[in-house]
TrEMBL record:
Domain DUF6801, chain residue ranges per copy: 69-212
A Pfam family of this chain: DUF6801
The protein's name in its UniProt record: DUF6801 domain-containing protein
Source species, domain of life: Bacteria
Entry-linked PROSITE patterns: TAT
Organism of derivation: Flexivirga aerilata
Classification of source organism: Bacteria, Bacillati, Actinomycetota, Actinomycetes, Micrococcales
């Protein structure tokens, strides 16, 4: 491939590389998007390859690399704008929006316009960002940036200027101290588009020229957050009210029966001796006048006057009482007959 053509391809690649590099710097220097704005100018050298096959043709070189000529090794200036937090605390992670303005050298812009017949350039890039705390704690993150479609100016020697935008997150430090952020390099896949819509792929592998440090931040000790206590309301306790479900009434389960412990003995009143022995429960009352000359003993059921007896016992007592009365009458009649007989004699 002629040197001029190689320079053209390199020019296209360089444009994409510059944009990517800017994004890498912004990612490293702006871990958050709070207050302060950071602006940084850097320079990157790139190896540019035309095509994406297994053996792409190199068309641009890093400054001072073997094979580089005076017209194919110019560096890519990059201006970075990003925001950084007023304070960074250990253990916290930050994110930021970034913007990188890339100016492609005039020689590469001419090659893109004349040899590749490019009308626009666009692409994507992947940047490597390294953060080191106190010289020992190292963290590496990767940022993704988009290079928007940018028109290629038609005027000779005019530069192609692109602005890459994106965001980065995950930059943090475990301990307090000094956090040094660096952007050692990036890769980019750029596409140059012709008027007829056909494209040329240009791959770039870039590294920082000189120091790769893009910023230094101070990490403060981790913040101590006092736990938030939510007032607890004392629950209101209402004593339970028990309503009786009924009126308790105690009903005896049996009927008390009083049984005399002794045997009532009834002695008839009259002339004669008569003994009535009543065996049972209750009170036996014998009423009448009895005249007897001999030992007459009348034995019969007692008359029970206990109001607590049941119907059967009451009937039995009445019958027994009647029997006693009849016996008494019989005795009296017998006595009367004997007296009359004695008088007749």
């Amino acid at each position: 491939m002629p040197a001029f053509t190689r320079r053209l391809a390199a020019t296209c690649a360089a444009a994409g590389a510059v944009t990517l590099s800017a994004g890498a710097f912004a990612l490293a220097s702006a871990p958050s998007a709070h207050a302060a704005e950071i602006n940084k100018d850097m320079s990157f050298g790139c190896n540019a390859y035309l095509g994406t096959g297994p053996s792409p043709y190199q068309v641009w070189y890093k400054p001072g690399a073997p094979g580089a000529g005076a017209d194919n090794q110019a560096p890519f200036p990059v201006s970075i704008s990003a925001t950084a937090p007023d304070a960074i605390y250990a253990g916290q992670s930050y994110s930021t929006s970034i913007a990188a303005k890339v100016s492609i050298p005039a020689g590469l812009s001419n090659a893109t316009r004349e040899l590749l017949q490019g009308k626009s350039i666009a692409g994507t890039s992947t940047a490597t960002v390294i953060g080191v705390v106190n010289g020992t704690e190292k963290q590496t993150i990767t940022g993704k940036l988009n290079i928007p479609s940018t028109p290629v100016p038609t005027a000779k020697d005019s530069q192609i200027v692109t602005t890459a935008t994106g965001s980065a997150s995950g930059l943090s430090a475990k301990t307090s101290g000094e956090l040094v952020i660096s952007a050692p390099g990036f890769t980019a896949q750029t596409v140059v588009t012709k008027a007829d819509g056909s494209t040329s792929d240009v791959f770039l592998d870039c590294s920082a020229q000189g120091s790769d440090v893009v910023g230094t931040l101070t990490v403060l000790p981790a913040q101590t957050t006092s736990p938030t206590t939510t007032p607890t309301s004392t629950p209101t306790t209402t004593k339970p009210t028990t309503t009786p479900t009924g009126t308790g009434t105690t009903t005896p389960t049996g009927t008390g029966t009083t049984t005399p412990t002794g045997t009532g003995t009834t002695t008839p009143t009259g002339t004669g001796t008569g003994t009535t022995t009543a065996t049972g429960t209750g009170t036996t009352t014998a009423t009448g006048t009895e005249t007897a000359t001999g030992p007459d003993t009348t034995t019969g059921p007692p008359i029970i006057t206990d109001g607590g007896s049941d119907g059967t016992n009451a009937n039995t007592s009445l019958i027994a009482g009647a029997g006693v009365a009849a016996a008494g009458v019989g005795v009296l009649a017998y006595g009367a007959r004997r007296r009359l007989g004695s008088r007749r004699k």
